[in-house]
Amino acid sequence: MFAKYIIRLDDIAENMNNSNFFLLKDIFIKNNIQPLIGVIPNNQDEELLRYPKSEFDFWQEIRELQRLGWNIAVHGYNHKFETNSSGILGINKRSEFAGLALEKQNEKIIKAIKVFNENKINIDAFMAPAHSYDINTLRCLFDNQINSITDGYGIFPYKKEGIVFVPQLFSKPRKMPFGIYTFCFHPNDMTIDQINELDIFIKRNRNNIITFNNVINKYNNSMYKIVINSLIEKLVKSYRIYRAR
């Protein structure tokens, strides 16, 4: 089994680095690649609001990308961090969701869905801001029929609390021997060199780049994959503890 790759873009919003976004869009379209993009329904992140508001019809652009086969994740509701919780994954000590009461989280999810529905966007996945969510987040997603998440440890999809997780480990593209890997990029912060590096990786590995939905549709939870994921999780957590010393 050859490795397969998913391209993920975070922090897609009405206020963003449009120059980088359209450079990446051009690369994806030329190479017939359909990435997963995390769209913020009601952006209130002060760092992102420093970018000028899009002069084009933002939601029309998202609808067109979905028509082209791009997968759309709901990237929180407003991307404002309300707690210092690192959630289940323990990566970043900030969160829009983890640590909040179930009712408050559910309210955010419902509002996010409403914005997407009003703009005729289908939700393919949930993408937690700062990779931070907790058990209440999962329950709210399940109750609102959002059944997949782009995040987690491992190299194969797995299921928890009725939700399919497609793990995300790396922020830099790299050739791997086997497994399914999501490479996470933040277009707002990417340099031209990083964009060119991604372009080269795509050209060299185009046949092994797949869509998020393709993985979800072919998901199976074999014991072999469960064991491999468990080992990967232990290794990654041990490495992070070692680096933090």
From TrEMBL:
SUPFAM superfamilies: Glycoside hydrolase/deacetylase. It comes from the Bacteria. GO terms for biological process: carbohydrate metabolic process. This is DUF2334 domain-containing protein. It comes from Pseudoneobacillus rhizosphaerae.
